[in-house]
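Structure (tokenized):
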């Protein structure tokens, strides 16, 4: 007996052999079941070699307890001690699988299946498994026989007798034998049905690919024909009913839960039309569907089609008929957008809490490898039959051998895939449950790590290895497509198999490049040579090409990248920035492939690419008005004359327009570092505020430059610029003019004529300098909202404005003044102008009915006269129903009516005024939300068109590529431009209904 307070030597040995609960283990070893062998060192050492010694010991005791008599128990113990193969197999299974331990406890004689150790046991095939299932006479006995066969696979797996690929192949062979046995049971139960039809079972998915998991749905497709000797229509219909009954029975035999559990679900949802289509079709019906209706993913699924049960001749006919269609899929019209969609990871469908634990669908998971391999097979398999394999690792090896994937990349992916599949197998084996989640409990992680041979620190070692392999997959996933393209054009590795010119062209087309020859020339120019610059480009391009292919116009993205690289290639910081700063390269790729505006701005001053990084250039956050004004005024002070000063101001404007456009694009597309901005209104406010602040700062700098050149420090008249329209509302878009009013007030001692002449010269010179042709985009000043419109003087004194508005102002002018806000020049004069117009725009008595009718009349006239001929009104973002004009006029009518009493309405900004009207109870929250949504969407459409086309427009483009690019900016994936237009029409239609109620009917 052990002295109190001291641990027994057995306890210490158990700890040393990996037991986590040595006290419980000691009690089990002292029990009657293990009495004959409790002191045998061989047993303890064998238990310590298992994944979970505690679980293995507990399972062994349960197995011994389940033996029918002492003689059987003694036979088991004697064989266990004497036979190392049985000891390793049995204890290995008991230490790795609680579910198989349960099976052995229920079927105490099945341990005998692990005794034999003959050459044929090393790599069992379908014939051996059919032999193992031959005695099954009903679903229950089939389940018992299936688990017995599964036991032998698991034993050789955990002992390392077979590797992960061989394990997966044997699991698929066992599934094949099980489907055949289940079909035989179904035919025996309904011999008339069996005689009436020919039925073939086609394995799909992992079973078809010979790479099944321990627990997985078995995907199948059923094909049926009338039995030989029949052929009329009635016979075919009866045969299909009979085949459907057999197929349904087969599925129930495998899927239903009995006292022995279930085998696995049989899933026929990959059939034509999915679960909505008939369970069994004739071969001609299958062929007709795939020829007319099938989508790219359905041909991708057929890569793994393999006849496994039923009529072998019919199965062979099915594969022979459909396989040619698989290899023609890359020629289909919708292949490129389908590939783009399939290449996007499906992480967003995974619950957030599970993303980091997903072995299959998470970033760097098994699906990344499988999809990449399958898509490359579809692209190149039409001309290379060596790629026609349904098994992922075999196909990957063939891709490397043919030069379609780099050999080093393929080797790394092979290693990572094997490790991830091994993890998946051992996780599922524990309880024989279908899961792809890495466990969270330390005990589960410890068992998993030990099962993979990590014994020193199994938990930490497992997590390190998993992260490393997932990182390899993430890094190589995109590069897999593009690195061989670079090898093909750069030709730097002698002896390495390379893509042929035709194969490279095929791949570029499949990835969305409309002009593959030009794209390959760009790659050659960028990546060829032995310079450091070319070496860095070869590192960057595989990832950049993936981002370009993810856009609506990959060709333009690549061309623009070549232009920027040619301009900055000799600049030491450029490639270093892209290589070393995580966000810079992806930000650049998104910006260069999103349309014309941002690349055009960048090409005029390529050094602005530094803004895209994480460093000291300020990043993509727009700068505030004060900061911009300080920079521009400082540049004006340093300049030699007004021309040079305004050129500097316009240069700052160009750079900041690029910064804003880049921030907008990155927020709209999203990157790995920054997800898509969920609040579309926030992006609208960002652009509107940034461009308006930039315009105000540019005008302030231009005003200072013109005054300095003409009059020194002081103009003979005070001068202020009042923003109007979208400018005053902080809602300017990329292509907006600056709507303004000019106001002046002669200084003491200055004559009226002198002051007026000076103010007029300032306005003329500002407009001229801001429109001078140069590398910088012009800033157009529009003063048409001034009193008397185009007929009136460009600039007036404050007293002149006061006299005009008091005597002559029209309703439309009071309406326009709702947006008036001081933006540049003399702040005191600007303040007094705003005070002057406040009573006009927020009248004390509200708005009379005559004025309301006039506003409605003006709006109706504007809609009828200004809408371009031939334009679709329902898609016109400014003047169409539910567009910007509808929303703004409705909000502004509320401001004119209630602005005097509701101070919250006294704002120049549409969204703020709408929010204030809702807070004041003037509009319901639902209606306010509808109007806000429509206004934000219409503004985003205008911004998108400008970004994509490089010129302003109020309606959607007609060019398919441009329309797709607008769709991507608005959050619609490839091939969904129609959905975008439908969404716009719906949103605008709802807004128009609110406008009809509030603007016209109120």
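Design, position by position:
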């Amino acid at each position: 007996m052990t002295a109190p307070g001291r641990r027994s030597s057995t306890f210490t040995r158990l700890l040393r052999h990996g037991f986590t609960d040595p006290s419980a283990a000691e009690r089990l070893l002292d029990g009657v079941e293990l009495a004959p062998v409790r002191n045998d060192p061989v047993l303890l050492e064998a238990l310590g070699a298992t994944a979970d010694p505690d679980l293995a010991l507990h399972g062994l005791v349960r197995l011994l307890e389940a033996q029918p008599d002492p003689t059987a128990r003694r036979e088991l113990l004697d064989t266990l001690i004497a036979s190392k193969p049985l000891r390793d197999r049995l204890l290995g299974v008991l230490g790795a699988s609680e579910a198989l331990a349960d099976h052995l406890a229920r079927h105490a004689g099945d341990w005998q299946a692990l005794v034999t150790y003959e050459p044929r046991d090393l790599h069992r095939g379908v014939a051996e498994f059919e032999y193992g299932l031959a005695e099954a006479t009903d679903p229950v006995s089939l389940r018992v026989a299936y688990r017995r066969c599964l036991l032998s696979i698991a034993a050789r797996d955990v002992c390392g007798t077979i590797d992960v690929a061989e394990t997966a192949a044997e699991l698929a062979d066992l599934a094949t034998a099980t489907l055949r046995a289940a079909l035989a049971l179904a035919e025996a139960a309904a011999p008339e049905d069996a005689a009436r039809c020919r039925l073939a079972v086609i394995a799909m998915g992992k079973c078809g690919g010979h790479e099944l998991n321990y627990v997985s749905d078995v995907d199948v497709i059923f094909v049926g024909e009338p039995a030989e000797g029949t052929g009329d229509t009635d016979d075919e219909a009866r045969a299909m009913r009979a085949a459907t009954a057999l197929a349904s029975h087969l599925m129930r035999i495998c899927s239903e839960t009995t006292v022995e559990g279930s085998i696995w679900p049989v899933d026929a949802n990959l059939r034509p039309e999915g679960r909505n289509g008939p369970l069994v079709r004739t071969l001609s019906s299958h062929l007709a569907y795939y020829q007319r209706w099938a989508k790219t993913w359905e041909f991708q699924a057929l890569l793994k089609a393999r006849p496994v049960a039923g009529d072998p001749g019919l199965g062979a006919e099915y594969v022979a008929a459909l396989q040619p269609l698989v290899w023609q899929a890359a020629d289909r019209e919708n292949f490129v957008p389908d590939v783009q969609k399939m290449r996007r990871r499906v992480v967003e469908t995974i619950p957030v809490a599970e993303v980091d634990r997903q072995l299959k669908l998470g970033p760097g998971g098994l699906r990344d490898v499988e999809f990449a391999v399958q898509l490359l097979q579809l692209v190149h398999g039409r001309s290379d039959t060596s790629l026609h394999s349904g098994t992922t690792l075999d196909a990957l090896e063939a891709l490397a051998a043919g030069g379609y994937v780099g050999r080093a990349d393929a080797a790394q992916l092979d290693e990572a895939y094997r490790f991830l599949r091994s993890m998946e197998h051992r996780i599922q084996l524990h309880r024989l449950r279908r899961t792809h989640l890495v466990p969270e409990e330390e005990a589960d992680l410890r068992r998993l790590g030990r099962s993979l041979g990590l014994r020193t620190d199994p938990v930490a070692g497992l997590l390190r290895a998993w992260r490393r392999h997932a990182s390899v997959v993430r890094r190589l996933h995109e590069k897999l497509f593009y690195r061989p393209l670079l090898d093909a054009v750069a030709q730097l590795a002698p002896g390495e198999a390379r893509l042929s010119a035709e194969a490279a062209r095929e791949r570029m087309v499949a990835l969305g490049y409309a002009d593959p020859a030009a794209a390959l020339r760009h790659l050659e120019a960028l990546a060829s040579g032995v310079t450091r610059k070319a070496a860095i480009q070869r590192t960057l391009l595989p990832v950049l090409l993936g981002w370009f292919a993810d856009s609506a116009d990959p060709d333009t993205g690549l061309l623009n990248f070549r232009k920027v690289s040619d301009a900055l290639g000799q600049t030491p910081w450029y490639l270093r920035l892209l290589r070393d700063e995580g966000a810079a390269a992806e930000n650049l790729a998104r910006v260069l492939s999103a349309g014309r505006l941002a690349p055009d701005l960048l090409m005029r001053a390529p050094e602005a690419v530094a803004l895209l990084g994480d460093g000291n250039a300020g990043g993509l956050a727009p700068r505030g008005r004060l900061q911009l004004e300080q920079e521009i005024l400082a540049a004006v002070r340093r300049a030699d004359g007004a021309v040079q000063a305004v050129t500097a101001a316009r240069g700052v404007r160009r750079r900041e327009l690029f910064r804003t456009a880049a921030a907008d694009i990155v927020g709209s597309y999203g990157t790995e570092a920054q997800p898509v901005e969920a609040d579309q209104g926030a992006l609208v406010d960002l652009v509107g505020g940034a461009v308006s602040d930039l315009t105000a700062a540019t005008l302030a700098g231009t005003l200072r430059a013109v005054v300095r050149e003409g009059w020194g420090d002081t103009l003979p008249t005070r001068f202020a610029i009042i923003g109007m329209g979208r400018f005053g509302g902080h809602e300017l878009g990329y292509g907006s003019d600056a709507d303004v009013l000019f106001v002046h007030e002669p200084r003491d001692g200055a004559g009226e004529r002198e002051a007026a002449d000076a103010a007029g010269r300032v306005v003329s010179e500002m407009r001229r300098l801001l429109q001078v042709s140069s590398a910088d985009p012009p800033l157009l000043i529009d003063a048409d909202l001034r009193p008397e419109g185009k007929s009136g003087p460009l600039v007036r004194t404050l007293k002149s404005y006061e006299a005009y508005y008091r005597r002559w102002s029209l309703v439309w002018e009071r309406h326009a003044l709702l947006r008036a806000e001081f933006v540049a020049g003399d702040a005191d004069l600007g303040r007094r102008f705003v005070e002057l117009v406040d009573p006009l725009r927020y009248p004390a008595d509200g708005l009379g009915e005559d004025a309301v009718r006039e506003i409605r009349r003006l709006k109706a006239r504007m809609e009828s006269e200004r809408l371009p001929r031939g334009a679709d009104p329902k898609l016109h973002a400014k003047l169409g129903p539910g567009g910007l004009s509808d929303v703004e006029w409705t909000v502004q009518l509320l401001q004119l009516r209630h602005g005097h009493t509701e101070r919250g309405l006294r704002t120049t900004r549409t969204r703020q005024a709408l929010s204030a009207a809702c807070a004041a109870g003037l509009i319901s929250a639902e209606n306010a939300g509808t109007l806000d949504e429509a206004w934000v969407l219409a503004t985003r459409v205008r911004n998108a068109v400008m970004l994509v086309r490089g010129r302003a427009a109020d309606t959607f483009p007609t060019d398919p590529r441009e329309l797709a690019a607008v769709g991507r900016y608005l959050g619609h994936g490839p091939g969904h431009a129609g959905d975008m237009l439908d969404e716009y029409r719906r949103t605008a239609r709802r807004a128009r209904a609110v406008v009809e109620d509030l603007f016209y009917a109120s």
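Reviewer-requested clarification: Residues 1-6 have pLDDT under 50 and may be disordered. The chain has 44 helices and ten strands.
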